[in-house]
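[09:14] KT: can someone run the structure on this one? pasting the chain below
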Amino acid sequence: MTLRAILLHKILRQQKNLVVKPKTCRRYSLEELVQEINQDNLHTEVDSGLNVGNEYW
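[09:31] RB: done, C-alpha cells below
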C-alpha cells in the first residue's frame, strides 16, 4: 500500500482478517463552520508581508 492509500483508507483487524475500508470524511457547510467561531478560537489579523506580485491590499 502506498502512503496515499493508507491516508485514504482505514485498516481494521476483524478476527484473523485485515479489512481495508475507505475513510469517510464529514463535509461541513460554511454556515456550520462560522457558527463555531467564538472569542476563544478567533485569531487576530495575520501580516503576510509586503506585496510581491500584483497583489493589492
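[09:33] KT: thanks! The first strand starts at residue 9 and ends at 14.
[09:34] RB: yep, looked fine to me
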